[in-house]
Amino acid sequence: MSEFAPPAIEAKGLVKHYGGTVAVDGIDLVVQSGECVGLLGPNGAGKSTTMELLEGLQAPTSGSVSLLGQRWEGDSTGLRARIGIAPQETRFYGRLTVHETLELFRSFYPRGLSVDELIGLARLEEKRGAYVMHLSGGQLQRLSLAAALAGDPELLFLDEPTAGLDPQSREALWDILSGLKAGGRTVVLTTHYLGEAQMLCDWVAIVDRGRIVTQGKPTELIAGIGGGHVIELVASRAFAPETLADLPTLHNLFPRGAGFTLHVAELHLALPWLMERVRSLGMTLRALSTREATLDDVFLAFTGRSLRESEPT
Ligand SMILES: Nc1ncnc2c1ncn2[C@@H]1O[C@H](COP(=O)(O)OP(=O)(O)OP(=O)(O)O)[C@@H](O)[C@H]1O
Fold it and tell me: Which residues form a coiled coil (predicted)?
């Protein structure tokens, strides 16, 4: 890739209103060629709408999108041939076979991968002749990915590629996505799965209420909230957060239900202090757990809410 290649995506000041609903509220995004980027956020955060604005499927209320150095207002047909889209739900015709479906998608593009290559990439060899209506959820998601790859796109948009899949199917898709990434394609995906974002993406943008609240490499974002360790505790009665203000190496403190979530840097200093403070207040611990910080804690640090709690199971 030339060092003068334009960014794969350059979005400036994107805003989208649906009547009185502000779905996207000023998003700036630059994705370089070859990067794999994740948009992460709770339901209704504006991820899919952002994807649709980038994909040229919706016009923004204001702001601009440039993909591969081109605007949608220019040669949109030429641009469309260079990108691939796997929407949240692809409706296929159930009475076509996998092979026929991919032949159909391939016919939409002036150039691209052969149907055999697509079937190989999506690991659907055994289902080549099967009717689409007989595919499992994981196989359908892989078919959707294959359809998005039909034009051999430089830039791939995947809206929740592993939503609703069992762990085995999800891992199969991760494997395929890792291969696509290694092949140098630019990939933008949305996901609810923090581990997925952490594993697949070079960097993530955390979206909440139509805005990017923070972005960066998962490890850097986690390091950036300080601490790295999370303590969750519930005491025998409620107490004021100020009571814990002097906790050694404390970075963040959030009241959570009946207790607190604490981000700390040094567990071996924080834990004994905490036990002693709880004891000196005449309380006992109802629950105490520790874990490594995750992207969910980054979301919590920026929004005061947990990403997991904002999600359906
Ligand atoms: N076509 C539409 N008409 C009206 N409101 C819409 C439309 N599409 C999305 N919205 C609203 O815009 C907001 C953002 O929705 P969007 O689907 O982009 O969020 P999301 O982050 O992708 O959520 P999910 O993870 O559930 O897909 C929500 O409040 C949603 O109800």
Answer: none
3-class secondary structure, 221: helix
Distance (Å, whole) CA 214 – CA 197: 14
Q: Report whether residue 49 contacts ligand 1, using a CB cutoff of 6 Å.
A: yes
**In this structure, which amino acid lies at residue 8?**
A
Q: Which atom of ligand 1 is nearest to the CA of 48?
A: 22
DSSP per-residue codes, 277-293: HHHHTT--EEEEEEEE-
Strands 203-208 and 36-40: parallel
pTM, entire model: 0.87
Which token pair is 124?
A: 């659907």
108 touches ligand 1 (CB under 6 Å):
no
Which residues are CB-contacts of 187 (< 8 A; sequence separation ≥ 6)? 35, 36, 37, 155, 156, 158, 177, 180, 181
Q: Is 127 in the pocket of ligand 1 (CB under 6 A)?
A: no
Residues 248/254/260/263 CA torsion (nearest 10 deg): -40
Of 94, 91, 103, nearest to 131 (Cα)?
A: 94
As a whole number of angstroms, the distance between CA 148 and CA 124 comes to 15
Q: Which atom of ligand 1 is nearest to the CA of 16?
A: 12
Q: Whose CA is nearest to atom 10 of ligand 1?
A: 23
Residue from 167, 226, 153, 230 nearest 196 by CA = 167
Q: Label residue 273 by pLDDT band (50, 70, 90).
A: very high
How far apart are the CA of 15 and the centre of ligand 1, in A? Answer: 13
Interface confidence, given as ipTM, is: 0.96
